[in-house]
Amino acid sequence: MGAVSILHTVFGVFGDATGLFLFLAPTITFKRILKNKSTEEFSGIPYPMTLLNCLLSAWYGLPFISENNTLVTVINGTGAIIEAVYVLVFVIYAPKKEKTKVIGLVTFVLAAFSTVALVSVAALHGKTRRYFCGFAAAIFSVIMYGSPLSIMRTVIRTKSVEFMPFFLSLFVFLCGTSWFIFGLLGNDPFVYVCNGFGSVLGALQLILYAIYRKNKGEKATTGKDGGSAMEMGVRNGKEHLEKGKSMAVSPPENGRL
What we know:
Blueprint: H1 2-24, H2 27-36, H3 46-60, H4 70-93, H5 96-122, H6 126-146, H7 149-158, H8 166-185, H9 189-212, E1 219-221, E2 229-231
Antiparallel strand pairs: 1-2
Helix pairs in contact: 1-4, 1-8, 2-4, 3-4, 3-5, 3-6, 4-5, 5-6, 6-9, 8-9
């Protein structure tokens, strides 16, 4: 049991480290957003959903909810602060339609967390409280891990990984795997089930990245006599083609994350 306890702590610490990198990975994307003053075609859905997951997981890890999960609270409390900053930046620079969607999601996030916290404190006790908070955290962890599915569909459709950052995918895999093992060692299904799903999803993202890693917004020219160019990246708006008979549009510099 001593060895299991040590391994449990080790994987918890490793989970905190990889979790921090996971939360910080989008800074590359947000540096681009701040530079261009536009969210382009980046999806705003993952950030509010990750915020909700962090809030619920941090709540679940508190000693009066579940035992031996302090490391869960530490990393998810930190993650909640980081995700709140991402959401704020995204709302500032997103187009009106996307901004409305994100604000609606944030409202849902705050309402959902407040409901879970109040019900668990005011109406539930002991194992019932733990199960209630555990189920809530697990459900939204799966939703958080599943939120990049829309981007994965875009990668398959466009055959480009421009809008699926590599490090985000890598740390989804590492973080999910770490907490999956942590949950197994601690015999906590509320931790290992959802993080096992995250580990698998992260692995699938890495596989997609390996397949399409060479395509990051390039344009491919098609047609006879150097016809018009087709954009492979998923950017907002349409590029204007240069006038002139039988002239190909030369590809611009690749947009890099």
